Amino acid sequence: MKNPSSGASKITPCCSKVGIKRGPWTPEEDEILAKYIKREGEGRWRTLPKRAGLLRCGKSCRLRWMNYLRPSVKRGHIAPDEEDLILRLHRLLGNRWSLIAGRIPGRTDNEIKNYWNTHLSKKLISQGIDPRTHRPLNPNPNSPEVGHGRELISKPKANRYSTPVVFEETGGNSTANGIQSDTNQLKGGHDLVVNDCMMGIQSGYRRGNEEDYIENCNELDTFSSFLDSLINDSMFLNQQQQQPNFHPLVCSSSAQTINHGNTIWEAELRSSIDTSSEEQSAQNNHPA
DNA sequence: AACTACGCCAACCGCAACCGA
DNA sequence: TTCGGTTGCGGTTGGCGTAGT
């Protein structure tokens, strides 16, 4: 299955397995890698194994460092509040594990992805919720709510950096057609704002040129503030208190189907846009 | 005790974006 | 502008541990 020489039109030196060790890392390898990165710093992954004296490919070294050896990595049990945050961020961002991980200190994208696949998705399914769309499974097809409303859904792999988030609103009824890739389907100002912000986040965080995209995309702060509001929102807690049948795993989705066009999180976004625009003048930089 | 099924998670792979020559 | 190399992301796999029979 994992034969690098099959099916690949080109094989980068990094992926060549000649003399390259694979499989689990030993404590000795961990120590060599950690010491080297402490001494020389991160980066130049491709040449790092040779410089450090490791028989590993650069990708493997990077992954090991990022997911396991980094001092900031928090390992172990995921707390309920972290789980709640993952759920809400996933509903917002889809399978953008690195973005989700970026909002949860000490957690890696791999860890969150694994936790989602092994715990949260099953949890949602057991509660009759589609973990991909955060909508009820086997909904009543006659219901006007089915397939309507707004949602954020992960993109197919081919376009995962192009238009990561699309909100579509048509007339009085919001529609969500699942995976969207065509920016022509964007409608409404908020849709564009969020989409542009995501584009900025994507391009910026991938390469760390934060100054560039912050200059060119002020909406980053908007979106970041929006995420912060999700993290800290009291609305979520209020819902739990006010709705006897409220379940945290369907929090905003239940609210949005009830409210149709005026969704809870649209309000959150509006609020975020309003407040963040005020804050932007006083806040030049925002920790990503 | 032996075997099987299942869950978890570290690690790998392919792809796409980014960057510099 | 093009192209090759590098980096980072998300999907997937394989191995290990454990529960169940």
TrEMBL record:
<feature type="domain" description="Myb-like">
    <location>
        <begin position="70"/>
        <end position="120"/>
    </location>
</feature>
<dbReference type="GO" id="GO:0003677">
    <property type="term" value="F:DNA binding"/>
</dbReference>
<dbReference type="InterPro" id="IPR009057">
    <property type="entry name" value="Homeodomain-like_sf"/>
</dbReference>
<feature type="domain" description="Myb-like">
    <location>
        <begin position="17"/>
        <end position="69"/>
    </location>
</feature>
<keyword id="KW-0238">DNA-binding</keyword>
<dbReference type="InterPro" id="IPR001005">
    <property type="entry name" value="SANT/Myb"/>
</dbReference>
<dbReference type="InterPro" id="IPR017930">
    <property type="entry name" value="Myb_dom"/>
</dbReference>
<protein>
    <submittedName>
        <fullName>Transcription repressor MYB5</fullName>
    </submittedName>
</protein>
<dbReference type="GO" id="GO:0005634">
    <property type="term" value="C:nucleus"/>
</dbReference>
<feature type="domain" description="HTH myb-type">
    <location>
        <begin position="70"/>
        <end position="124"/>
    </location>
</feature>
<feature type="domain" description="HTH myb-type">
    <location>
        <begin position="17"/>
        <end position="69"/>
    </location>
</feature>
<dbReference type="InterPro" id="IPR015495">
    <property type="entry name" value="Myb_TF_plants"/>
</dbReference>
<keyword id="KW-0805">Transcription regulation</keyword>
<dbReference type="Pfam" id="PF00249">
    <property type="entry name" value="Myb_DNA-binding"/>
</dbReference>
<keyword id="KW-0539">Nucleus</keyword>
<keyword id="KW-0804">Transcription</keyword>
